[in-house]
């Protein structure tokens, strides 16, 4: 994997112009539009300088996309762990169904075949989003609302994995579908779940 180079002074200003240009290109045409040639033309930064800080255009795109999301993930606080899980599931569904979420999926898919991009994707995007929902799980454990014996990563996969699968299968998840998935997950995660209502 290529190690990141230190950036200071004039290099930092050039780097930011590259990231701004790449973000604009991603917004306009997705990953296909964010070529090194296009970033070079839009930013005015030479291709040699671009390659000084990034090994390829995919890493430029991931860094640019991550910069736009650095405000962080706002966690819900709905008054109960069950309501928080349901709301966060809805938010995940809305995000990945949005143009921004679809672009993240495009970057993720492209990074699977590139070791540098995959590492950058984890450190700049996936880990930070994962850490945010881990806080939600830790809060629920502290409150005694969920099973403390569960591995947090397994619990989060159970909670949000079905949303991702539904998105891959159908391309969208409605609010009602997200709520139903959250309800099903809750029955396996809660410390003392209520039995489901009888049918019919």
TrEMBL record:
Region forming the signal peptide: none
Residues of the DNA-binding region: 35-54
Keywords assigned by UniProt, alphabetized: DNA-binding, Transcription, Transcription regulation
Residues annotated as domain HTH tetR-type: 12-72
Example GO molecular function: transcription cis-regulatory region binding
UniProt-recorded name of the protein: TetR/AcrR family transcriptional regulator
Organism: Nocardioides anomalus
Lineage: Bacteria, Bacillati, Actinomycetota, Actinomycetes, Propionibacteriales
